[in-house]
Amino acid sequence: MNGKDFALGALCLILQAVIAPADAQTAPAGASGSESTRQTAPAVASGSASPRHAAPAATDLIGRPVDLDLSKGVQAPPRDASKLPSTFEGAAKTQPVNPHWAAVAYKPKSRRDLTGIWINQGGIGWKPGVPPGRAQSPPLTPAYAKIFQQHLADADAGKPTGDPTANCLPPGMPRVMTMTYPMEITMGTNRVMIFAEWESQVRRIFTDGRPLASDPDPTYNGQSAGHWEGNTLVATSFGFRDDTNMESSGLPKSDKAIAYERIWLADDDTLRDEFTLVDPVAFAKPWTVTKTYKRAPPDFELEEYVCLENNRNPVDASGATQVILKSGDKH
Q1: Tens digits of per-residue pLDDT, 146-179?
Q2: Which domains occur in the chain, in start order?
Q3: Of 29, 88, 183, 307, which alpha carbon lies 20 to 30 A from 205's?
């Protein structure tokens, strides 16, 4: 490289440094280039990514101007951060403690108050008290009965293919309500929140009158809306993915399944959820079961459950879930 070429190259680098910030604000969606351009240009959604696009830096996720003016609105009182404890023991003392918090069971504020941690009764089969598998006697159509029989045969052969949760995928609705782990319900002014310990899944049953989409994008838990009839929460849910099953045996459903629920307190410590599943593709007729949950003791808490930390089970070329018996072995 001669001196002239070197000087020209240096000039180009200087111009790039000056011009790039301006270009980054106007780069079209999908533009490639410098890291700053990629961060500020709208992203192109693909695969299972969120349908929302990353917004330019001057706006938030839904296109509103970014507001970073901390002088506006109500101000928090001043605090000397240098005096905050630097140990867990000290940090624990920064919050007031009720010495009786674990001794008194929660008392519902009304018959519509479903607040609490609830533990499923009757096992993990879809029909309570009946083990997963053939004994469930589901009212399947011939095509879906064939799918179910194949899952059962694969399990009998030691090559189970019917339980995606064995590979750390979420259970999805409605199986998330047949929990081997507890769930917690909190009540909001416009929704009922259901937090499952299993994979930290969350259901929201909206009670503010919002419409349900007639052609929703399928998700694990679908969409749910509800209203109160007396002291019973009446909910409708649909829009579930078709690659989830209803129990560990591989009991199938389709993406046309609709879950109609009636949820109520049988007494202060007993919650019931009547499920009627309507699936014009997988079921020959509606299927109704009633699930029961008992209130957990007052000192009971949900634990964090991250399936991937338990060593995800490998899947072979046929789709069968494998089990690692010891390090290096797959069977």
Answers
A1: 999 999 999 999 989 999 998 889 999 999 999 8
A2: 116-310 (2.40.128)
A3: 307
